[in-house]
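step 3/5: co-fold with guanosine-5'-triphosphate
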Amino acid sequence: MEENLLNSVIKITKNRDVDSLEYSLISTIQEFVGCTEIVVYKDLNVHTDLTIERSISLKVINGNQFEWAQRKVVDSPEPELLSCLRSACIITVQSTDGMEKRWLPISLQDKQIGAIAVVCKGLKSADQVLLNAFCRIYENYLFILHENERDQLTGLLNRQTFDKKIKQLIEKQVIKQHKTAKMDNNRKRRFSSTSWLAMLDIDHFKKINDSFGHVCGDEVLLLLAQKMRYFLRSTDLIFRFGGEEFVIVFEPTSFESIEKKMNEFMEMIRETHFPFVANMTVSIGMCRISPYDFPINVLENADKALYYAKENGRNRLCFYEQLMENNLIDSNDKSTDIDLF
Ligand SMILES: Nc1nc2c(ncn2[C@@H]2O[C@H](COP(=O)(O)OP(=O)(O)OP(=O)(O)O)[C@@H](O)[C@H]2O)c(=O)[nH]1
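step 4/5: write tokens
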């Protein structure tokens, strides 16, 4: 038992990203505590209202089948989950059939950021100790990973995390493509939307820095990051690539909807009163993410579209595929300066 426990701690702390950490945590709780359901909830904290996401969950069906579910925003969180988040206390509810549901709070730098919910058949005190200990190990390790994955100024994902996240997304698309290939045509149409990548750069940002200093420039960057988190879906991935350049990876959707969404976003930025700047605008280059793309090619395509937007008036949204179709850029053009890590 002790050796198994040590091995499970080693397994948890071997992870190098938050998603795999949560997967390990749930598997370990299941192995040592034995629950019928385990869910990791996160408070996304992007809107003034609470926005809760189910980060990952495991359900045991018929005693031996496991059903994993991925990221999803929870529309109506249970009152016990909300109490757990607000009070930072463990909440337990017992039902008449002997089942028990327990919510354990998770904090990061003294701030409640989520909770782990488990459903079990009455927990012995040794199991309760174990469960608490696993949650604390997860919490400590989450802090380290969080520091590694996030940009210090804006709290957005950093450049180093991009490669790993986009590889995961492309892998998922390949699997989905294989599944879609077996579907009939009507269902295929519904599933045919692709993911998109946007590269966004503030126009004339240097002027803000030069006129008001870097601290004021930083404040503008911070406010823009908040606007992005507020405007975009919690499942879209937002990275700060450094300086005044941001990259967004969108969930699969049609060209029409992403174009509409990004035009609305640009309009919102134009209408926002940023400190020190009368009218701040951004330029955006976008491209599709296809299942067999290499991450660097996707970045290059978006960068070419962004370069075109900058060279042709700024304050514009340009799609790589449209520019190519209209022969406005050349696919062999090597004008981009993307870092290869
Ligand atoms: N405040 C602040 N400024 C930064 C940071 N990183 C880079 N910069 C500044 O961002 C500015 C980028 O300037 P340029 O690349 O010339 O771009 P621009 O002035 O936005 O012009 P266009 O992109 O062509 O519209 C430079 O002044 C950098 O010093 C940062 O973390 N904080």
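step 5/5: annotate
The mean pLDDT is 88.
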